[in-house]
Amino acid sequence: MGVLKTVNLKKYYGANAEVKAVDGINLTVNQGEFVSVVGSSGSGKSTLLHLLGGLDRPTDGEVLINEQMLYAMKDDALTIFRRRNIGFVFQSYNLVPVLNVEENILLPIQLDGNTPDMDFVNKVIDTLGLAEKRKSMPNQLSGGQQQRVAIARAISAKPAIILADEPTGNLDSKTSMDVMGLLKVSGEKFGQTIVVITHNPEIAQMADRTIRIEDGRISESS
């Protein structure tokens, strides 16, 4: 079943639409699928990810998550929907420096006014090898450990989909593969749907399917 779908999605910039960052993309991602999106710098892949996550409104077209039309929603409703249905993992980790590992992981759930499912959270923490670090502060962690926390935070809220934008861009090659391996294992174990933007061909090959973006359009899918 398609958990994520785009319909003729477009994002143009400039008064005369001279920059077509995303130019009519039709895409379906199925429940539990791990998809990588690759392309050269400026190809539109990060713009696409922002549109998929409801972080930027398109010039035209629509994004549907679990058959809900993101851009038919008003801003406040979209913010709530995004928090409840989409997990984000960015290159910069985005951890809160004054909160420990466990507090960072639980923060999005608590912001939504929900009681965390601690059995599930503990399984995620164990799967990502963070059990001994749960009371550590971000500045006491390596880059790879911080990215694991960011992944745990995204998974623990039980979103419909996880969107990751160059999640290993600040990590060395071995740590990158370790972190992505854990993300893949976690996705399979907890039934998460994952879309990863990457320029790393080794990471792209870990996915169930790879989509190449060039000049704002899908040039191939395999």
How many distinct folded domains?
A: 1
Radius of gyration (CA) equals: 17 Å
What can be said about the biggest beta sheet?
A: 6 strands, mixed
Text of the CATH class: Alpha Beta
Shape designation: globular
Strand content: 25-35%
Notes on the structure:
This protein has 222 residues and is of the alpha/beta class. It has a single domain, classed as Rossmann fold, CATH 3.40.50.300. It has seven helices and ten strands. It has helices at 45-52, 75-85, 101-111, 118-127, 143-156, 173-190, 201-204; strands at residues 2-13, 19-30, 34-38, 60-65, 68-69, 86-90, 161-165, 193-197, 209-214, 217-221. The chain has a six-stranded mixed sheet with strand order 6-7-8-3-9-10, with helices on both faces. Strands 2-1-4-5 form a four-stranded antiparallel sheet, with helices on one face. Helix 3 packs parallel to helix 5, helix 4 runs antiparallel to helix 5 (143-156) and helix 5 packs parallel to helix 6 (173-190). It is globular, with a radius of gyration of 17 Å. The mean pLDDT is 90.
